Fold Kelch repeat protein.
Amino acid sequence: MSSDASTAVVDSDQVFCFRPYEVKRVKYKSYTKNGRSRPFARSGHRIVCDDAAIYCFGGFNPNMAVVTDDDDDAGSRCLFQELWKYDIVRKEWSLVMGPNHVLPQELASNAMILLGETLIVFGGTGFPFGVNCSNRVYVCQPEKKPKEMTEVKVKGDLPPAQYGQAIVYHDGHLYTIGGTEGFDYTCDIYRLNISSKTWECAYACRQDIRDDPPGRYRHEIAIDDERIYIIGGGTSDSAFSLASIPTYHIRENVWSYTATKPDPNLPLPGVPTARKCHSCVQYKTDQGTEIVVAGGYDGRTYYGDIWKLNLSSLQWQLMQKSVLPHPLFFHDAACSSAGCMYIFGGIKFSSNNNVRTNIVYKMWTTIPKLSEICWEALQHYVPDMANRSTLPGLLSVGIPLKFAKRVHEQ
């Protein structure tokens, strides 16, 4: 199937057309559940996903504060102390945990990953930004009861309390890189041994060492079996290049810079412009690990472009058929195991105004297996499948177990 292929299934009433690389707005059911039908518009939040659901934690919106005359903590009301779930099959938002639960107070520009069934939240800041920062680790299993988020009791050489850092899991360790407390920026690397719950400083950057990258925040991370790549990021008044990528060699415990190749179909420089506050996801294909970078800004210019980088060939490709409806930054993205990228929230630049959003977009970053295309078609033609069939019922009509579990046993 060619790179611009599309697959159509036709009947007398409607058409299902599968188009990879096309950015689509995700529809959801509008109804009231737990007092609200969906998350408010926000920026500075984090999302993760598996093949069945998207989880959104935290965020900030200065226009959503509820202030009273005797309110001396109005700023904190701009932060969203909540965990939301979007059910991909049912197309429904639900509030998993809110202010009535014990949740972190540092709700902006933290970092979050999904490890199996466990959400891990690290760092972040309260309001005013930089005054209250975190170096605490929280975990929860949103599909299990009781619904709670607990702080992990750790020891060792703890990383500084910061926000805007990036985290990744590798070989039994949680790595955190970079961040700021509002004035100084780092690119130091700390790692937490998940088994012993012990922190250690793996690498402290020095500006007198040529290959040590300068400090930054709101960058993203990509990883292969041996290296961690730092994708963009910046400071309050700068943004870093994506043409030459700081690369941490895990086993050798050294930094270097990885030169990337421009898109051969574009005039030079043919690579993404420097940016921060963008999103980045990664997934594995037959051609190796690929990452997709979307949106961001550099302090002056706002971006709605989408780029792909293959970590084997190190060649950038501008996704010319993929573009965000508006330039977008301070959003977040997550990717399913099959390569479907979801983008939620952020600040969109439209008509010379910055407006926060709560829209979900999806884009297939690759051509998936035929079974995934068939599953998309089935959801299109049977939108109430979750309410019509039990797990045994889905299995009895030939739906594979891995797809049936996306409907039930969540």
User: Anything to note?
Assistant: The mean pLDDT is 92. The radius of gyration is 21 Å.
